Amino acid sequence: MKKLIAHGAITVDSLEKSPGRRWTIMEKLFLGLSFQQYITQALRNPLNWIFALIFAVGIPIILGRFFFGLSWVTHSSNDYPWGLFLGFGLFGMVPLSSSGFLLGTACEIFGRHDLEPMERLGLLNGLLGYFFAVVFLMIDLGQPWRLPYPMVVAFGPAAVLFLVAWHVSTYLSVQIAEVSKSFFEWIGFPIGIRAIRKITLGLTVSGIILSTLHQGALGALFTYAPGKVHPLWYSSSFQWIHFFVSSIPGGLCMVIAVSTIAGKTMSWRFDKRFKDSLDRITISLAKGASMGLATYLTIKLMSIAHDNKWAYFATGWGKWYLVEICIGVILPMALFAYAIRHKKMAIIRFSAFLVVVGIILNRLNTSMFTFNWKLSYREIPHWREIVICVTVYAIYIVVYRFILYRLPIFYQWRTEEEPALAYAAETCEEPALAYATGTESTALRNTDAVAP
Amino acid sequence: MKRRDFLKGCLISGAAASLGPPSKSWAVGSFEGYPDAMGVLVDTTRCIGCRSCEAACNKEQNLPEPQLPFDDTSVFEEKRRTTENAYTVVNRYETKDGQKPSYRKMQCNHCNEPACLTSCFVNAYTKTKEGAVIYNGKVCVGCRTCMVACPFNIPAYSYSSAFGPVIKKCVLCYHTRLKFGRPPACVEICPREALTFGLRKDLIKIGHERIRATPDRYFDHIYGENELGGTSWLYLSRVPAEQIGLDETVGNEPIISNVKEFLGMVPMVLTIWPALFTGFHLLATRNKEHGDDHHNHSEQEDGKK
């Protein structure tokens, strides 16, 4: 894509290709390239070949799961009812998707407009993470076509999972509404944009409520199994707080990780505003993540002290617990502290990846590795289970990339009234104002509008 | 305009919050079990491991014939668990006192406050007044949380079925016998009278009476009398319960007690968060005329305000 742009290809960033001529839907879908160019650039990308290979193997296996049953793709264990689909797909992906509500809250509630260039990435990351967590759930459920049952057929309001089901589905619609703003801009549907803008505050506040509850509820699910989850990973009083608090650095670091990968692979899609503010916002997010990690570590230790579980540290499980905490919490905290102070972007980004790995490791530990610690055997997932996970994750990446290439996530949509060029010009004149140029320019325009 | 936005925001978040489920708080409090609940007293000192209860269960519940016949004792070589094809299994335990091995029958213990029931989000489980924990496969979605929640590792799942997998477990022969006042098939067939069927409260008395009458035959404890809030199946044994594979670390609180702290927090978040965060919003933006505006708004729109 970079080469094509160098050769004069124009990227789609507004409704009109040239004055008076609108982009057609097909042109938008092909990123403003001709069909020929589009196919060539897609074939040139080695990643696409890897994806093709994964899909060739994985998609038949996913289909097979629905025709031959779960016993064909898993070891159908009665002792380990939850395998990788939930351990990785649901419990791992949901905390990494808290970015939607975190950035939404920061921008819309706390008025941190300086984080705004990253807000849409946060929202999209949240939406896709949740959506694919539900995809994983659909694969894991015995009778996925009955997924709406807790809403319409039979109610078990005493169950934590009932809460998760309601909140995840409600939150998914909230997130679709939040992200649809970019989509409406892209297809040119101003009524939709205005409608969403009006309800943004309400959407954001309900996002916080729903997220607090279901992030916590995923942890609370394990309080049903006090004898099965290893005591170091179990806490009747703190389990939901552990899951909720760890989702905060998880979500923030996932956004840093995604923007890092995007910076390496699709920087052509970044506009000047995003490029200029990326490092600054990354530092802000890393600061937030550090605070989250510090809180998480404190609560983790408090729960150990609360139930007096120090003796377990002498066992092998205890060492594994320390490994998890070191990789996912202590090491990134130390690196963040050093790197934020010295503005070492590479280290910040690396630590963000560490946190992401640490969160996934924690969820896998809770749901699989240390689950049934009293039983004599550990369950190793079936190879087909692993292939399905890799395939669904690959689909997730492809969809993610598809949207990032097209919708105004990394760039601002240019409209007739407010050409994004104006922004570029302003920053050139006053680079020192880069922080708040956006807000201030609106402020300036606003006063202009009011003054006469 | 701003106030209207604020009120609207409150309304929407309130509406979203009201979509959330009510908490469990109305159903908490301790439940001692139904007064007329039936149960079974298992006297493991009488059990000889003949497996006729397994055979009777298999026949009563129309389960597929097992690979090895029911009189084959080689199955005792390993510890088995309940599966979709066997709702009850008998295991052999070498005990520490050097005497003959003990046998223990394993099946759903029909808790007074079942973990499976409280963890089910479609209410597929019912604790009947006769004491049985029965299951409705017609609403089961297949999340298998009940299997995670069951402290005895009892529910099994028919994974092999692609289009209608359900939970498989002992239902105390509720539909075919218990409902009509008859004892479960396994109890009826037991040749050693190791299984006694009766009112749970009577069985506890019988158990204590046996311990009192022959104290050297029994370890002084009825497993299931208090464990996890009490179970309908009760066990007497010569040795401490953990030596015959019963988990002594489960405690006397029902599983739901561990979840109550979270469930109690839910209404707090639902009611406090909207006000709290809308308040934060007002504080954070109070000095800005256009606090909730975005700098990618069009000029025209901002002009209108």
List the helices and strands and how they pair.
The complex is a heterodimer of chains A (452) and B (305).
Chain A: H1 2-6, E1 16-18, E2 21-22, H2 25-29, H3 35-44, H4 46-68, H5 70-73, H6 84-90, H7 93-96, H8 99-109, H9 116-140, H10 149-152, H11 160-187, H12 190-220, H13 239-265, H14 272-306, H15 316-342, H16 345-369, H17 383-406, H18 420-429, H19 437-450
Antiparallel strand pairs in A: 1-2
Helix pairs in contact in A: 4-17, 6-9, 6-16, 6-17, 8-9, 8-12, 8-13, 9-11, 9-13, 9-17, 11-12, 12-13, 13-14, 13-16, 14-15, 14-16, 15-16
Chain B: H1 2-19, E1 38-43, H2 52-60, E2 89-93, E3 102-106, H3 115-119, E4 125-127, E5 133-135, H4 145-149, E6 156-157, E7 167-168, H5 185-189, E8 195-199, H6 200-213, E9 233-236, H7 256-284, H8 299-304
Parallel strand pairs in B: 1-9
Antiparallel strand pairs in B: 1-8, 2-3, 4-5, 6-7
Search tags:
heterodimer; A: Formate dehydrogenase/DMSO reductase fold; two-stranded antiparallel ribbon; 1% strand; disordered C terminus; B: 305 residues; alpha+beta; Alpha-Beta Plaits; three-stranded mixed sheet; elongated
